[in-house]
Write a structure and sequence with these properties.
Oligomer: single chain
Structural class: alpha/beta
Bound molecules: pyridoxal-5'-phosphate
Strand content: 5-15%
Largest sheet: 8 strands, mixed
Length: 388
Amino acid sequence: MTLAAAAAAIPLAVPHLGGNESRYVRDCLDQGVVSSVGGYVGRFEREFADAVGAAHAVACASGTAALHLALRLAGAGPGALVATSTLTFVASANAIAYTGADVLLVDSEPATWNLDGERLHDEVVRRAERGRRVPDVVEPVHLLGHPADLEPLLALRDRFGVRVVEDAAEALGARWADGPLDGCGAGTVGDLGCYSFNGNKVMTTGGGGMLVTADARLADRARHLSTQARLPGPGYRHDAVGYNYRLTNLAAALGVAQLEQLPDFLARKAAIARRYARGLVDLPVALPPEAPWAVPSWWLYTVLIDPARATPAAVAADLAAAGVQSRPLWVPLHRQRPYRGAERIGGAIADRIARRGLSLPCSVQLEATQQERVIAALRRALGAGGHG
Ligand SMILES: *Cc1c(COP(=O)(O)O)cnc(C)c1O
C-alpha cells in the first residue's frame, strides 16, 4: 500500500468520540474518582436502562463478563446445557464455557442469519418426548445487529422453562417493528440481555458491557457477583465466588457521553446501510438481511459475495490495496478448536453464510464520498465493470 493510500485508508468500524467524552473523563480526573466507585457508573446504568427500555442495568467490565454473569444467573453451570448460534463471535460460546455448562451449537436460518429458533424448538420437543436432555438456557445472538426471531424461543421458555439470555452485543438500538414484540429493544425481551462497548461496537467505553433485566433480584445479584460477592458492612465477607467484573467510573464517563450520541449513531448507520443498498444493487453480492419485522442496528454492514466470482479473502485483499478495510465473517464455532466437539444442530447454512460474508466500512463518521470509494473498489474487485 502506498503512503497516500495508507493516509486515506477507510477503516472498517472505528469509534466516534464527538461529544462530551473528554469533558466527563476530565470530570472523573478532577474528582479523583476513576475506579469502580463513582457517580458515572450509576448514571450510565440509569440512562442506559432508559435508552433501551429495560428496568435494570448493571455495568460490567466487558460484554463477555456481562454474558458470563447473565448465564450464571439464568442457571448455566456444570451439568447444564446452553444453546447458542454456531455463527457468532467466539465470546458468545466462551461465556457459556466459563460457567462449566455444555454448549449446543445451532445452525443459522437464512432469513436473518440468526439462530434457527424453529429448528431448535422442534428438536427440543423431540428430545423431551424421548426423555433426552433439553437446554436449560438459550442464548440467541442478534448477529451483526439484526434482531433474532425470539418467538420460538419464548415458546420454549413457556413450555419447558428454558431461560433466554440475549447476546445483544452487536445490537444496541435494534428493535422489533411488528408482531408481539413490536417496539421492544433487542436485549430487553429475554430473562437477561447483554451488550458490549468494545472499541468497534455501536458505541464504546474503550471496553465494557451492560447486563439488563426486568427482574430487580437478578440485577442486584449480578451487581453483587460483579464485585467479588462482597457483603455490605465492615470487613471483607463474601457469600459466593464472585468476580471483578464491574465497569470503572472512567469507562462509564465515556459511556454516558457516547449514549448521548446513540440516536445520531443509529441514524447514521441506517443511512450508511441505505446508501450501500442503493450503490450495490447491480453487483453480484447479496445484501444483508432486513426482515420486515425488524429494525437492525446495522452494526457491521455485511454482504455475501457470489462464490462464482470471488472469495471474501480475495475481495478483502483487493479492497485493502485500494485503502479500504473489510473483514470476512467469523469461522462458525463448530469449526473452531475449542467447540469442535460440542453438540450441534446442523451448521450447513452458517457455513454457507460464513464462507461468503464480507463486512464493509460502516463507522458512523463514514462520509458519502468515502462510501462511493468503497463501492467503486468493490465493483473493481468483483470485476463488475460499469460506472465508478
Ligand atoms: C463483541 C461481542 C461479544 C463480547 O463483547 P466484549 O465486550 O468484547 O467482551 C459477545 N458477543 C458478541 C456477538 C460480540 O460481537
